[in-house]
Amino acid sequence: MNLLIHPATELYGTVTIPGDKSISHRAAMFAALAEGRSHVRNFLPGGDCRATLGVLRGLGVPIEEVSPTELVIEGVGLHGLQEPAGVLDCVNSGTTMRLMAGLLAGQPFFSVLTGSSQLVKRPMGRVVEPLRRMGAQIWGRQGGKLAPLAIQGSPLHHLDYALPVASAQVKSALLLAGLYSNGLVVVREPGPARDHTERMLAAMGAPVQVLGSVVTSERPRRPLAPLDMAVPGDISSAAFLLAAGLLAPRSRVTIVGVGVNPTRTGILDILQAMGAQVQAQNLRQEGGEPVADLVVEHTELHATEICGDLVVRAIDELPVVAVLATQARGRTVVRDAAELRVKETDRIATVAQELRKLGAQIEEFPDGFAVEGPVQLRSAAVWSHGDHRLAMALAVAGLVASGPVLVEEAECVSDSFPGFEQSLQVLGVELGLEE
Length: 435
Ligand code: S3P
What we know:
Layout: E1 2-5, E2 12-16, H1 21-33, E3 35-41, H2 47-58, E4 63-67, E5 70-76, E6 88-89, H3 94-104, E7 110-114, H4 125-133, E8 137-140, H5 141-144, E9 146-152, E10 159-162, H6 168-178, E11 185-188, H7 196-203, E12 208-211, E13 214-217, E14 228-230, H8 235-247, E15 252-259, H9 266-273, E16 279-286, E17 289-297, E18 305-306, H10 309-312, H11 318-326, E19 330-334, H12 347-357, E20 361-365, E21 368-373, E22 381-383, H13 388-398, E23 405-408, H14 420-427, E24 431-434
Parallel strand pairs: 2-15, 3-14, 6-7, 10-11, 18-19, 22-23
Antiparallel strand pairs: 1-23, 1-24, 3-5, 4-5, 7-9, 8-9, 11-13, 12-13, 15-17, 16-17, 19-21, 20-21
Helix pairs in contact: 1-2, 1-7, 3-6, 4-6, 8-11, 8-13, 11-13
Bound molecules: shikimate-3-phosphate.
Shikimate-3-phosphate binds next to α1 and α6.
């Protein structure tokens, strides 16, 4: 599917956005381990989270889809997962594969995790190596660096591990393995990676503790309590609509029910540093997570520098930050973001390659990029490379180009933001879809 985006002059309205991808994955996985029936509302029915549901079903977890966004999950308990008859397909989802690797390492059975051609190129050594230190038996291509991963569950023991990169996926995999370990698992974080696992497992009664940048988990003495929660809206999806509202002249956009966990709000800090005012209204709690309504208006932006912990707190938003930077006065510089190179695509290379087709001035570094602005973007055809966040960032760029922008292979937006096109239309964007 190709998405044709027309330039916009005035975006106005109120939208809700789908549930948070990271929280949806965790809600489904952890509910499966609980004793009793969990209710999860506003579950993200995107490709990545649906992959998690498929894997859990393969492990014998009964999941009823009351609607695409409402799940009833019959928890099988910490020791109730069953050996899968076939391979477990994580499709495009790195979160599914890495978290499940941690969970499966301590199960008394054999399992195989695989995924799309995109996923089997992404680094898995970062979870395999520390899990092996705990005693896990995991095999993969290139000595365990790449999927498919074959896991023979085995007894796990104590681990004290300093993460080489700030990664919530690796942290979460180790914390999950810790639930099946004979000793304490201690994870030391170099930066503030998202903490949804810690919050949710602790709320379910698991012995997961956070002391500054050190997180521990161990074998629970009692069953995990089931969940009854609504997943907050995904701030990583909201980022595209915030960017749209900031860039299109005479705009005012309200996004209702957005998760504003401080480990995720780097984008709000970046927008503020670029001169934008994002108002957070109706601050409340949902499912143990802070939630707010976000309001933005069109703003003339200026450049900023992004590095260090801020990168960790905004890692998935950096493609759309690059688009914002094309319209901001000055040179916006992103550093310390080498992790972008191992996302769904090498997002430093693909963002630079595609934004240049629109006339952007962007320089690549090994660990980031610099963008000169403002420039008038031009009408062109661009390619998503099968990367949902790149597709949506390019669509936002189309709102301020001199003519229509065609985003090729845009069906991947539904990996994280099903309904993205409709949300843009509600705000007044003129767009076309071609098969
Ligand atoms: C995620 C963590 C981040 C993020 C990804 C989702 C998660 O990846 O980029 O989209 O749900 O834990 P890393 O943990 O690899 O940094």
